[in-house]
Amino acid sequence: MNALVPLPVLLPLCVTGLKLAIGPRLHRLQRLISVAVLGAVLVLAVVLLVEADRTGPLAVNLGDFAPPLGITLVADRLSGLMLTVSSAVTLLVLVYSLGQGMADRDDETPLGVFHPAYLILVAGVSCTFLAGDLVNLYVGFEIMLVASFVLLTVGGTAPRIRAGSTYVIISLFSSVLFLIAIAMAYSAGGTVNLAQLALRLQDVPVGVRTLLEAMLLTVFAIKAAVFPLAAWLPDSYPTAPAPVTAVFAGLLTKVGVYSMLRTQTLLFPGHRLGDLLLLAALASMVIGVLGAVAQTDLKRLLSFTLISHIGYMVFGIGLASRAGLGGAIVYVAHHITVQTTLFLVTGLIERRGGTTELTRLGGLARSAPLLAVLFFVPAMNLAGIPPLSGFIGKLGLMRAGVENGGAWAWVLVAGSAATSLLTLYVMAKIWNLAFWREAPPGQIAEGVLLESDEDDDEGDDETTRPEPAGRAVAATLSGRAVTTTSRLPRTMTVATAGAVCLGLLYTVLGGPLTSLADRAAGELLTRSPYIEAVLGP
Fold it and tell me: Cβ contacts of residue 111 below 8 Å, gap of 6+?
């Protein structure tokens, strides 16, 4: 089983080379290869998760070079769960992008650019989840950065170039900080292998250890968009195509959260910056959700809710207890899926209504009831309505805060409850403006563009047919034309429905999920299973 650990990284990279060699002309083969490889990664992730839960962490030294010389990859319960959730989400987003590409003739998601970059992004995410040393973790982040810049600027419009430039500048700044932190860790411990650092940092002076912890936390807080290091996110994500925005918002910020979980528990047990993390968690929750309340554009609104709910995960990390870490793990898995789903639904709303500006939307509950259901379920899940998985994760974190009993913990419990109520208010605001009220004047136009969901080697058909008033509208958004349609592309709708069902599955499997998260939290706090898997008994 250890030999399977590198495959989630190697498969997408190898297939990317194959797809570039094939070229963009063979559309069906390109799409089949992409779906097949991500399906294989999902199967591998499930196998690794089951095996790690059954026998303990799986470790492999590439090239058979023992630490600290070789590259070490490790799959334990935490990385296995994150890999499984991320693989399922990236597969659903890929299917969604295929539907969008077929409907738009690949204008928004061109095969020759989007799919290789997307597979490289998946490889980078897998690399960060499996990395057993700081250098390989850095490499995973840089792989994601390169692919992210390509995906953010697909289409080459001015807003996307500006947003991509902002994202790259912030990411490069955090990468420089990361390199400095790696150099500091090597200077202090003589290695960058996480298992060896876990042992050697115990003999490092407290001041040096605290400085290194602060450096790594700053790097990962930028990646995770933790307040006050989150100002870049609302301006960077909303301009990208819907599938890109969905996978970025749902997944990429959680890579930073995962890195915080891994390093804080493995390298800095009993860390001295717990109160600082709790303060950052509270600020992220409150300021993020207040920013969402003030927004009228759906994409920006959801971007602010993303910042807000990152605070829940940092809350669990700051508590540093088994219950707190378990609640954070459950919430990370839940939020990856639900936030991705909401951005996929936003892409469908944009196609149906011609805009994501809430003041210009209305009447969707009557004209598109399926779209209303697809939004309502993840919206209530994000707000934490019982018995959905959002409620399960928030309840676990609040119970951990009550068990902690400290003053900061009680403040965070109150802040979590207030943030949850404000999130419900924000979701109700979206529902009222976009779905429940009548369509505002000026939204109605004659005719409708019906996208075909069938694909062939020559391209996809588009036909314009007259329809009753209220069926279509054309708009200009983010520098590009948007034409609404009364019939949403089938593949995009099915992929979104699959993401909704995946979020509901966490509710159905709430008991096993929380139990797995608790075991993963115990393994993180114990540390010895991870260290022994890498270095031996």
Answer: 24, 27, 30, 31, 101
